[in-house]
Amino acid sequence: MEWTPYRIFLALLLVVTGSINTLSTKWADRMTSVGLDGESRPFVHPFLQASTMFLGEVACLATFKLLYWYYSRRQDGSETREKTTSGNTNFRALILLPPAMCDMIATSTMYIGLNLTYASSFQMLRGSVIVFVAILSIAFLDKKLRGVEWAGILFVISGLTVVGMSDFASGSSQEHKDTNSIITGDLLIVAAQIITAFQMVYEEKFVKDKDIPALMAVGYEGFWGFVVLGSLLVPFYWIPAYPPFSANPRNVLEDTPDGLVQLYNNGFLLLAMLGTFVSIAFFNYAGVSVTKEMSATTRMVLDSVRTLVIWIVCLGLRWQDFNYLQVVGFALLLVGMCLYNNVFLEPTFKRIVGYMNRRAGMTGRHARLEEEEAGVLDNHEADKATTS
After folding, report:
1. Helix segments in 203-323, DSSP class H
2. Is the N end or the C end of the chain the one with fewer CB atoms within 10 Å?
3. Where the protein is mainly located, per its record (predicted)?
């Protein structure tokens, strides 16, 4: 695969905006602000945050429509040649409703989990999606896994286990997490990956071959997600919920007016939400573009790089203390991802074996040549003796 400047740009955009998205969301979770009742409390509004994320994805659809209109005005077919607008635009938007619903449920669940555990663990535990995608691919896509892929899954499971163990040893003078909170948060994040796996398998089965432009696909998924979740915010305003799942004065699942007041009363909190809004739009565009331009494998490997960036930033900001178990867990996860996606390890092994075989072949040929030369010389000497 050739790394063109455009592909390098997409890779950097994916890593940077993906890291900003997780870190800005966690930053918002760590802040406090004055709510409707005049009391200052932590910002615990996962469904409002998820709605903001979907609104950011809707911005991708608006951008696509604007670019398509601009290119089509040239009347030279630019809209079918430019990377941002080329592809199939004649499809039923409802085909993107199921993956949008999976995304809505998974994202809301992950945001609840992120509020209960550490940002680096949140990102590492998202690697469990490989396990569930593999299982569902066998069940629904009739995929057969090779031995190296099963080995990758085992490495991922081992890494997830180590990451879970590290959470109980992690801590920070700025952020204290009790054991029950960590367990609940980690389990919610892993459960969300099961739903994300359903989304990926659905997209591979029904959406991938339709060649939908990246901005358009992200935009329609964001549109359906925002419409449905925005509607659900109304009943959520009346459904009872208690800490740690709720921190609003009314003790309900989501108090949107209280969340909006908290945003208004804290400029940094508003900045963090804007960071989520902008970064998710660019991140999803970059993710879908990397999948179309390169492969889903490349996208998952770049996502593991994002995990490393988030972990380093969390350590630098003292959001949690260093724990060697997380290094071990991340290493196991990375090896598992590389094995499962046939990246680096297996190709490198094949190159080494090929090189050794070539060397052995060259050595064998060299020996045969020496033997043939020795035979020629012996024959030549024998001929000389006979002539004499």
Report:
1. 214-236, 256-265, 267-293, 296-316
2. C
3. membrane
CA distances from 46 to 83, 331, 332 (A): 34, 30, 30
What's the rounded mean pLDDT across residues 58-71? 92
Residue 217: exposed, middle, or buried by beta-carbon count in 10 A (0-12, 13-18, 19+)?
buried
Of 56, 370, 113, nearest to 244 (Cα)? 113
pLDDT, tens digit, for every residue of 142-151? Answer: 778 778 788 8
Spans of all domains in the chain: 5-342, 346-387
Residue 337, amino acid: M
Backbone angles phi, psi at 41, to 5 degrees: -150, 165
**DSSP letter string, 123-155:** HHHGGGHHHHHHHHHHHHS-----HHHHHHHHH
Under a CB-based contact definition with an 8 Å cutoff, are residues 310 and 23 in contact? yes
Which amino acid type is present at position 196? Answer: T
For 214: left if phi > 0, alpha if psi spans -120 to 50, otherwise beta; the answer is alpha
334-361 residues labelled b (16+ CB within 10 A) or e (exposed): bbbbbbbbebeebeeeeeeeeeeeeeee
Q: How confident is the model at residue 172 (pLDDT cuts 50, 70, 90)?
A: very low
Give me the pLDDT at residue 45, please. Answer: 93
Which residue from 286, 273, 214, 225 is spatially nearest to 17, judged by alpha carbons? 286
The crossing angle, in degrees rounded to 10, of helices 324-340 and 345-387 is: 60
8 Å CB contact between 90 and 313: no
Rounded to whole angstroms, how far apart are CA atoms 157 and 172? 26
Total-model pTM: 0.79
